[in-house]
Amino acid sequence: MIIVDEVHKRYHTDHGPSRWVLQGVTLTIPPKVSVGLVGCNGAGKSTLLRLIGGVDHPSKGRIERQCRVSWPMGFGGGLQGSLSGRQNAKFICRVHGHEEEISDRIAYIQDFAQLGVAFEEPVNTYSSGMKSRLQFALSLAFDFDVYISDEVTATGDAAFKNKAASAFKKLADHASLIMVSHGEGTLRQFCSAGIWLHEGKAHWFDDIEDALKAYKESIPAS
Amino acid sequence: MNHSTYTHRSSFKIAYSVWKALFLREAVTRIAASRTAAMWLLLEPVAHVGFMLFLFLAVRLTQIGGIETGVWLMVGLLAFLMFRRTATQAQNAVGSNLALFAYRQVLPVDTVLVRACLEGFLTIIIALLIFACAGLFGLNVFPTDPLAVIEAFAGMWLMGLGFGLTVSVAQQLLPDVGKIIDLLMMPLYLISGVILPIASVPQPYRDMLLLNPLAHGLEAARLGFSPYYYAVPELDMGFLWGSALVLVFFGLVLHRRFARRLMTL
Q1: Which residues of A touch B28 (CB under 8 A)?
Q2: What are phi and psi of A65, to 5 degrees?
Q3: Which end of chain A is less crowded, N or C, counting CB atoms within 10 A of the terminal residue's CB?
Q4: What homologous superfamily is domain A1-70+145-222 in, according to CATH?
Q5: Per residue in A75-95, pLDDT tens?
Q6: pLDDT per residue of chain B (265 residues) written in tens, 0 to 9
């Protein structure tokens, strides 16, 4: 269960604080429920994901995670460019306290990412597709109760997309997802509930269809 | 993957695994960042000592304060480098590891502590190598009081750690602080007595120079090498260690207070 309580968020820039991106978001995401986040660009979808994932902290309010939550998958950071894919993977295994099983996990990551010889090369020589393959494989190598995904299924070539989709489906047996996607099909495929972010507030829908409907109605017809 | 392997880890266990992972990662990037990184790690201080030694010997200055110029210069410079390398590496630790705060386990203070330890470790290796080489050239490199030398070097390292902890926070919150610190570092080399024998400075200026705790560390390290060295009479190791501990405490408090700000910049 994840409890988001009266969360406000704004960013700090060189010219003072920005506008409020989130203004009093209150949610409870029950266990074993996969949720899709919808909203227009700049509505704060990624911000909310980052807050839930613990990468960023709310300016006001509180987030309580009563389960193991992944870092946002497909999140750009977390990889050091000058180190190889293997070295980065080892680092993440160690941070998560899997020192003894490091070789198993590395084998799994290597197998899933299918980077070939590039796995031994520095990450800054990777294309964006290769990077997201690695990041996706990294987050799958650890057991979380909730996986957070920011448009991750949209990356990679056709073969990898299929692989990612089937891995996601397998995940759904024992874990839940919180995802942002602009593809309605993806959201319908993986999520049962939905959150619509609008003007700094979050609206919870038990059915993803209702969230998509509310989102579409908010867009002025052109 | 297997589910049963997960157990709730204690805070200390998490911190320990983060330190271990960071240490290995930092060591790899520091030593193998480029083809010549490892070479420069060693060559930079060697060239520094060599150049200074050449200058001093060119003016036929064979003894300073009763000990050989080579030993005097080498010990002082290495003690100073112990501080400066630790401080500069530690103060930039937060800025260059921003990407890692994506993992909730990693805190900014971890990166600073790990970098300071790594740099201290590397400097010890470099110092031992330089002493060994100098010994082959016939300099008297065996300290009469090794414990005093260790105490002085450890104090210099602790100053570097405290300085790094404090500045790493200040620098991230106010980017201009970094520039001012760079400016201050230049005269610090001179006023700490690396190439200037502080004992030969007349009063009241000597007392002013001795307000800098680093000067005490350098003198103590030299005194540890030879009991016949004319160190400054006001030498006070308590001042060096006291200042270092105050700085470390202050830096840790800053990290505690601003941890969130550092991660969300």
Answers
A1: 83, 87
A2: -110, 115
A3: C
A4: P-loop containing nucleotide triphosphate hydrolases (3.40.50.300)
A5: 556 777 778 888 888 888 888
A6: 444 344 567 888 888 888 998 999 888 888 877 778 788 888 888 888 888 888 887 777 777 777 888 888 888 889 999 999 999 999 988 888 887 887 888 889 999 999 999 999 999 998 898 888 888 888 888 888 889 999 999 999 999 999 999 999 998 888 888 888 888 888 888 888 888 888 888 888 888 888 889 999 998 998 888 888 887 878 888 999 999 999 999 999 999 998 887 877 5
Determine the residue among B2, B5, B7, B25 to mutate to test chain A binding: the one whose Cβ has the most chain A Cβ atoms within 10 Å.
B25
Asked if omega into B204 is within 30° of 0 (cis), the reply is yes
CB pair distance less than 8 Å for A95 and B99? no
- In the chain, the amino acid numbered B222 is R
Closest to B77 (Cα-Cα) out of B93, B110, B55, B107: B55
CA distance A166 to A180: 18
Rg (CA), chain B: 20
Q: Which of A53, A76, A168, A94 is nearest to A131 (CA)?
A: A76
In this prediction, the answer to ipTM > 0.95 reads no
Q: Dihedral (C-alpha) B78, B196, B224, B165: value to the nearest 10 degrees? A: -50
Domains of chain A: which residue ranges? Answer: 1-70+145-222, 82-143
Q: Which residue has the tokens 């030969």?
A: B200
Which residue in the block uniquely carries the two structure tokens 């979808």? A45
Helical residues (DSSP H) of A67-157, grouped into ranges: 85-95, 102-113, 128-140
Q: Is residue B163 left, alpha or beta, with left meaning phi > 0 and alpha meaning psi from -120 to 50? A: alpha
Residue A125 has what DSSP assignment? G
Contact A148, A178 (CB under 8 A): yes
Tokens of B166: 């404090």
* Closest to B104 in 3D by CA, of A76, A168, A72: A72
Looking at residue B137, its amino acid is F
* Closest in A72, A95, A101 to B21, CB measured: A95
B3 touches chain A (CB under 8 A): yes
